[in-house]
Amino acid sequence: MADFDAVLKFWGPVEADYDNIGNMVLTRLFAEHPDTQKLFPKFAGIGQGDMAGNAAISAHGATVLKKLGEVLKAKGNHASIVKPLANSHATKHKIAINNFKLITEIIVKVMQEKAGLDAAGQTALRNVMGVFIADMDANYKELGFSG
Ligand code: MNH
């Protein structure tokens, strides 16, 4: 699908700085949607002011973006990537689907600022995330998780 390529065009700066950009994504997600921080037991008690320099937040942010990079590069053939991700997020981490919509808008903004994601790229990223989220949701339903 053309949307995957339209986002991959802007992925270079993200890939070059997974730790810092990943940290920004999570720090901003937790700032704009404080309830999302409560879904991460390992980040309990970290204040907004300490997040930018927190190595554990950077490491997890990098993990998320690396996986998203795998999804982008699979260009829609991502069933084998999405399935284990849906399994862990439904049964272990208990992350309702709406949270993926929240992080989508954060990634759009951070990529706009840090990777120059333009209007067409923003639309493409929203489309790609829409496909990813729909596939996560289909897996959630199979698992009986009402996320
Ligand atoms: Mn998420 C762990 C990818 C969105 C909450 N997430 C992981 C792992 C990957 C990952 C990879 C580590 C392997 C695993 O447990 O499956 N997560 C993603 C991607 C997106 C994402 C690609 C969207 C893009 N995750 C979210 C959102 C939330 C969330 C949104 C909640 C607001 N994720 C978690 C939690 C863990 C996790 C909680 C477990 C963290 C830990 O304790 O190590």
UniProtKB/TrEMBL annotation:
One of its GO terms (cellular component) is sarcoplasm. Residues 1-141 form the Globin domain. Pfam families: Globin (PF00042). It catalyses: H2O2 + AH2 = A + 2 H2O; Fe(III)-heme b-[protein] + nitric oxide + H2O = Fe(II)-heme b-[protein] + nitrite + 2 H(+). PROSITE patterns: GLOBIN. It is found in: Cytoplasm, Sarcoplasm. One of its GO terms (molecular function) is oxidoreductase activity. Keywords: Cytoplasm, Heme, Iron, Metal-binding, Muscle protein, Oxidoreductase, Oxygen transport, Transport. It comes from the Eukaryota. Monomeric. Belongs to the globin family. Monomeric heme protein which primary function is to store oxygen and facilitate its diffusion within muscle tissues. Reversibly binds oxygen through a pentacoordinated heme iron and enables its timely and efficient release as needed during periods of heightened demand. Depending on the oxidative conditions of tissues and cells, and in addition to its ability to bind oxygen, it also has a nitrite reductase activity whereby it regulates the production of bioactive nitric oxide. This is Myoglobin. It comes from Scomber scombrus (Atlantic mackerel).
